[in-house]
Amino acid sequence: MISEQMYPNIGHPERAIISQVDRAILSEICTLSCLNSKLSAMSKSTPQIDLPGLQLDRSSPTPLHQQIYTFIREAIGDGRLKANYRLPATRVLAGDWGISRNVVLLAFEQLILEGYLCSKTGAGTYVAACRSDDLPIRPAAKASRPQSKRAELTTYSLLRRASDELISGCSVDREAIQPFQVSVPSYRDFPFSIWSNLAMQVYRGLHIQHLGYDDAGGYWPLREAIAEHVQVNRAVRCTAEQVVIVQGTQQALYLAGSLLLQPGDPFWMEDPGYQGAVACLRAAGGIPCPVPTGPAGFDLDYALQHHPNARVVYLTPSHQYPLGGTLPYPTRKRLLDWAAQHEGWIIEDDYDSELRYSGRPLPSLQGLDQAGRVVYIGTFSKTLFPALRIGYIILPDASTARLFIRAKALLDRQNPVVEQMILARFIQEGHFQRHIRRMRQLYKTKQTWLLEALQTVPDQCHTSASDAGMHLVAWLPTHLDDRTVSSELATRGVTAPPLANYTLAHRQPPALLLGYSAFTKDQLETAVATLTAVLRTQDSIR
Ligand SMILES: Cc1ncc(COP(=O)(O)O)c(C=O)c1O
């Protein structure tokens, strides 16, 4: 690019015609200037690397400059030195290695001549941007090095067993977001401009004390903001001392499992239920006792009769995951009585209760607890976005909270503080409440779109409207296998997890989970058309 600054007369009427010579000069100036600006930009933005690992052997018959040359060439060849890395100054290297600068210069000149390095006075020496086919052949010494046996993790620890099982039930690999993926907020509707403004303010006002270790329980103003939010919106009874900030529900469950269970302890688990929970409690050594959970909620009688020794129960009482019901009041009361009498613990996963579209908001189970036996878990993964990795545990009192805080410190010391500061402001300034209100409206509309689209397949699957959440359950004709239907859909670009993936011991009729919160009307309609086509083929196969 030619700029007027570089050649001020260009574009001027008197110099409208540029001679051949001018052009040649211009092109030269331009090339040099581009190179200069490129190199000076590079010197600002590219990392300067040291050259660790070079052992000069003064007793070797190979001259020192040759040793330096070979070392750098091999490092470029095997990718340790990447294109555009800036090498230390020859003077510095000579000083570090205790040799004459001329020796280093000799090696560098050779490397520049061969195109491995490039240099410009004043800007330093860089690794050239080579094509892969230009790279030197890997040194013979490396190729002939005996192949070491690949390290294999043979221990089959509790953590490994639990995570292996989780992966077989649900993929933890990165998947493209496609309908009907469940639990995905509408990222497009997140107020990023507000968030980034707050982030800027937080960074500008960052005090050096924020760069050190913070309280492992979390950033205090965020704990206060959460305490206030859950008191008002979820009827949770707590103060900020009882709130522990964690990296999402997953870490909360890992901590709760590790602190409430001893290896071999049975725990009641909703069936069908959240695989992430069963895996965490299993990893802590707990033995899952699946309890049938249907439209009437958690079957407490079954639990008491079949697994009377359990002292811990995992529940999603406000919006059962994945079926979507709410735990009736009498069962809540009985569960709390059971916990109080047997010194049991109720882990209440209140993952998406803010996303309730109609009916009265249901108070949390924690709010009814008189005996301090509920460990309440909340997350921002559904209301904001999961990559934030902020969730919270609310313990019955400050001293139990301190036990969790100590364990949290052991796991990862603390959550990153800047995100907590941004989130605290987001809540304090009312953006969180406004966003939730908008998302409730939006998700309700999206659910209606999905229900309308599903009306075109009335005989093949039935589903009904839900007062809350981000997905619907579509019940399939009983002769179909939901895993087969789900796999077939996956080959056609539709993700609809089968209910079978969420069951532990009690078989459910075949059904698919249809997430709607992240998708447009068009996407939902197209995916429903694919579902119809797949169900027709499955029927004809019969
Ligand atoms: C039942 C349930 N609880 C909690 C979560 C959120 O987990 P996290 O806060 O670790 O992102 C999910 C996510 O899908 C879930 O389904």
UniProtKB/TrEMBL annotation:
Q: Which organism is it from?
A: Fibrisoma limi BUZ 3
Pfam families attached here?
Answer: Aminotran_1_2, GntR
Keyword list, A-Z = DNA-binding, Pyridoxal phosphate, Transcription, Transcription regulation
Looking at the record, the residues that make up the HTH gntR-type domain are: 62-130
Question: In its keyword annotation, does this UniProt entry include Transcription regulation?
Answer: yes
- Name assigned to this protein: Putative rhizopine catabolism regulatory protein mocR
Q: Which CDD domains match?
A: AAT_like, WHTH_GntR
Coiled-coil positions? none
